[in-house]
UniProtKB/TrEMBL annotation:
Transmembrane segments: none annotated. This is GNAT family N-acetyltransferase. CDD domains: NAT_SF. One of its GO terms (molecular function) is acyltransferase activity, transferring groups other than amino-acyl groups.
Length: 121
């Protein structure tokens, strides 16, 4: 289940974000977290089953959702969590086009999510 980020989840969110190649540096990671907490267009979501196992971060533009971060706890990878997060987020923003960044593009391709709105999966 996709849930909105709250300050109480900061440590686990930072841990999951640190798996992203562009978030290895602590200062960069702290800046990213600050943006998710303070910028209204930056939205961070966590994936929770029994525990929080994944995270997806986006920037909302007028007609696009730019997926900046997708991260799943390594012990829960290859279970479809990343794809489930994308699908759940797509349901929240049905009217928008989803676009990846250079860091999330390979995952989009792996999930066949790039032109998902034109397919009937």
């Amino acid at each position: 289940m996709l849930i909105r980020y709250k300050k109480a989840y900061e440590k686990i969110a930072m841990g999951l974000l640190s798996f992203m190649p562009n978030e290895k540096d602590l200062k960069k990671l702290q800046t990213t977290m600050k943006n998710y907490e303070s910028e209204s267009s930056w939205q961070l979501f966590l994936w929770k089953d029994e525990d929080i196992t994944g995270l997806i971060g986006v920037v909302i533009h007028d007609d696009q959702v730019e997926v900046q971060h997708i991260s799943v706890n390594p012990s829960h990878r290859h279970e479809g969590i990343g794809k489930s997060m994308l699908k759940s987020l797509k349901q929240l923003h049905e009217d928008k086009t989803f676009i990846p960044t250079e860091y999330t593009a390979a995952f989009f391709e792996k999930c066949n999510f790039l032109n998902d709105e034109s397919s009937d999966e």
